[in-house]
Amino acid sequence: MRRLLLIIPAVAASTTISDCDVKHASAATLVSALRRGDFGCAATLASAVDATDLAVNEALLELRSAEQRLKDVRDALRTSEASSGKGMAPAHQWAQSGDELFVSVKFAHKWDAPATLVGENDVESVQFEEELVTVRARKGSKRFDLEIVPLRPIDPQNSSWVSASVGRLTLTLAKAQNQSWWPRLNRDKVKPSNQGVWWDKQELYDKERDKVEKVERERLKKQREEREKTPNEQLAETVEAKLKEDEAELELAEEMPPILTDEAQEASVKAERRKALCRKQAARERKEAEEDGKKAVVKEQARTQLALEDVENWLTYAIQQIDADAKKESAGIGGVVVGDGVPVDMPDVPEADSLLRRRAKKRGEPVEKKKRKKKKKDDSKEDL
């Protein structure tokens, strides 16, 4: 659209405001505006012209003629643009070390084809940007354009190029991140058909690859650990970093002239507030941990107390049952004799009764035998 606007003829110098006055609009003035190339004025007049005017047909014919002229100019522009468009992408090979990339460019459509004799003076431009490298050269009617979008950013300041033999040049691209190993040169995963590996150059740096990959693995591991840190750990590290910054500011403020005393005092107050906040947070966390521990101990003690009470109740009941079995013969009653021989009814607990019967079967006989022996001794004493 910008180019089309450029080809619209300028309004003639004789054009005045009255020429576009809608009060005097007619097909004749419309045709005159079209012939001058004043399409804005023509549009204004067309909205007010009388459609019954016989000269309207002449205006339409003039408009079609202008459209045809515009079309011819547009086609000419497109032809010119196509002839001066992007050139051929030259073949290239690449290698790398831990800190640099090496690209050998051959001015041919493929690596095994004869190179065009492009010299250093035929290289129009070589530009290095963090995320784009461009090489432009021209030899006669042949034009070469190479664009490399690197996988990762490069350092333009430390990148360079040199003209090799005729028809070739070499790029040296400095990696922005040192000690890294790239799996490919381009950001796009689809490798260009005329791109290959510079094996002769790469063999010089193969021994360095293991060391670089080890450093990169450690860096990736550290980054992964940083991402996996809990919010509390990140907060603690942030607070610690802030404290270190404040301490550094305090040390710097002490060395500054007296004019910075107020700033140093403000930094000191901020540091003390942060320290107090950290201490308060740590104390709160310790208090919460102690309270949780106390609650757990109290809960465990209550559980243990209940268990002891249950055991005590069962033991009391078992002893009463054993005593009752031992005194049944002398008491002559169906209850349990406790203390002075007063019969006491046992609680109606079928499960407990069956349990005690099993226990009495195991431990009751020795008790009964002991009681019977004691009774025999008492009878022998009475006989005497």
TrEMBL record:
The region called Disordered is annotated at: 337-384
- Compositionally biased residues, Low complexity: 339-349
Task: Note the PROSITE patterns from the entry.
Answer: CS
Coiled coil start-end: 56-83, 205-256
Ordered alphabetically, the record's keywords are: Coiled coil, Signal
Q: What positions does the domain CS occupy?
A: 87-186
Q: Where is the signal peptide?
A: 1-20
The question of whether Repeat is a record keyword is answered with: no
Its protein name is CS domain-containing protein
Which species is listed as the source? Pelagomonas calceolata
Q: Which Gene3D superfamilies match?
A: 2.60.40.790
Q: Which SUPFAM superfamilies match?
A: HSP20-like chaperones (SSF49764)
